[in-house]
Amino acid sequence: MDEKRARFEAEVLPHLDAAYRFARWLSRGPGDAEDVVQEAMLRAFRAFGSLRGSAPKPWLLAIVKNCHMTALSQQQRRAFVPLPADDEVQEEEALISAQADPEQASLQRDAKRTVDRLLSTLSEEYREVLVLREIEELEYREIAAVTNLPIGTVMSRLARARAALKACWLREREANPHAMP
Amino acid sequence: MQCPEALRTQAYFDGEVDALAASEIERHIESCAACRELLQELERTRAVLRSAVPHLRAPAVLRARICAALNKESSSDPSSQQRLRARPAARRPFWLGAASGVSVSAVAAALVMLLVLPRFNNPLIEDVVDAHIRSLMPDHLIDVPSSDRHTVKPWFAGHADISPPVADFAPQGYRLIGGRSDYLDHQRAAAVVYQHGAHVINLFSWAATGRALPSSTTRNGYHLLCWRASDIDSCAVSDTGWDELKGLVRLVQDLNVNDHPETAPGKAAE
Questions:
Q1: Whole-number Å distance between alpha carbons of A63 and A42
Q2: Do the Cβ atoms of B195 and B169 come closer than 8 Å?
Q3: Whether residues B130 and B249 fall in one domain
Q4: Chain B: residue nearest A120 by CA?
């Protein structure tokens, strides 16, 4: 294995899960997300020389975002598939089975589904900044780099996204008080 | 009811302000009910999102596809050699700067990890990583699901050529979830499976055949730590961080000291 490949594996490949999660939130289904991430990883590998000491995670996520935009412009818009698909949840939980308390696990699953659904009802712009900040824990300037927005816009969009999620959440809780986390 | 300082309060919440601005904002929050409420909402939203959004992982099949694509790319990339030669010169100022600080040994260690070990082209290591990836496919992880070492350890007697150290380290965060047998280095190897958070750690053990192993390396994004004790080669593989992986290895090695694993021919035990 050559040095470039080894360094790429040590610095960039550990962020594959983050890239996949981000792509899942952006795109319309697991298959699309996989194609986007594979393309992004290849592009990242080719452009690895340009990374030069900056943080690999936002750099990779920016490439994922670009690949997503390219894919989007190439394909017809399809209906958004909320994340995660049911079969995938089961697969993941089978992997880490032996839950101590099945009832607890089922409650957690319900709560997760609800939040997924709420997030998926937000606009893509809101969902993107929320996921980058709260799930991937990126800093403002990193989110700005990934989304190609000025920092001021990142801040105001994040504030609106959080308010929108809270509003959805309150509506949902009124309608269905037991299914909420 | 939206305070004009709301964005600054949000920036404070997100850890994006310096100490001076933070103390200003804290003073403001004391006197502004709207911002106090906002801060609570922000905390609430974060807690809900972080607890409920699944930590999805890239499917093993995707990882394998990407590695295959990278292999193809590496072998057909004539410019990579050129870029390789150009890089050390470009990076020199960084290393010089770092080396003048206190972190000389850390830099040396990082250099060893980045430059020396990954070059170690070792088919056995590739086999171990393949076995780990295969184990992550649905229904491949565990042959004997149990968190009881008295169930897992005897199971290996009939299914592997050695008897590996087995213990549940749930209090330390490494839950024993079962065992599996794999074929490595021309023998039936034991894989003890631990779960750490959302991560699976496979701990492979097999009778040492004298093949050299790197003590630590990264392959396809997975970290590996290998060691030899009492004629048994062991290798822990996971996508956790190094510290988490080292934590488990230390626990297992301590176990080794107290409880010497013996080479137990599987045939005799059957």
A1: 10
A2: no
A3: yes
A4: B53
pTM for the predicted model, two decimal places = 0.53
Same domain, B202 and B75: no
In this structure, the answer to whether residues B91 and B134 fall within a common structural domain is no
Distance, first Cα to last Cα, chain B: 76
CA-based nearest distance B242→chain A, Å: 11
| Structural domain boundaries, residue A158 | 99-175
CB contact residues (below 8 A), chain B span 240-269, against chain A: none
Instruction: Enumerate the residues of chain A whose CB falls inside 8 A of the CB of residue B195.
Output: 96
CATH number at residue A126: 1.10.10.10
B57 within some domain: no
B147 and B207, same domain (yes or no): yes
Cα of A131 to nearest chain B Cα, Å: 9
Which of B11, B83, B119 has the CB atom closest to A6's CB atom? Answer: B119
Nearest-CA distance from B95 to chain A in Å?
11
A60 and A119 part of one domain: no
Q: How many domains, in total, are found in chain A? A: 2
Q: Which domain holds residue B188?
A: 121-269
Q: Is B18 in a helix, a strand, or coil? A: coil
DSSP B206: E
Query: Tens digit of pLDDT per residue, chain B (270 long)?
Result: 578 899 999 999 999 988 888 999 999 999 999 999 999 999 988 988 887 766 778 888 899 899 888 888 877 655 544 444 444 444 444 444 444 444 555 554 554 444 444 444 677 888 898 888 888 877 778 888 888 888 888 889 888 989 998 999 999 999 998 899 888 888 889 999 999 988 899 999 999 887 778 888 888 888 899 888 878 889 999 988 888 999 999 898 888 665 544 433 333 333
A80 in a domain, yes or no? no
Alpha helices in chain A (DSSP H): 3-11, 16-26, 30-46, 56-74, 86-95, 102-121, 124-130, 140-147, 151-175
Same domain, B134 and B263: yes
From B11, B9, B2, select the one nearest B30 (Cα to Cα): B9
Cis status of the peptide bond prior to B171, with omega within 30 of 0 = no
Q: Cβ contact (<8 Å) for A135 and B119? A: no
Q: Which CATH number characterizes residue B231's domain? A: 3.30.200.100
The whole-angstrom separation of Cα B22 and Cα B212 is 54
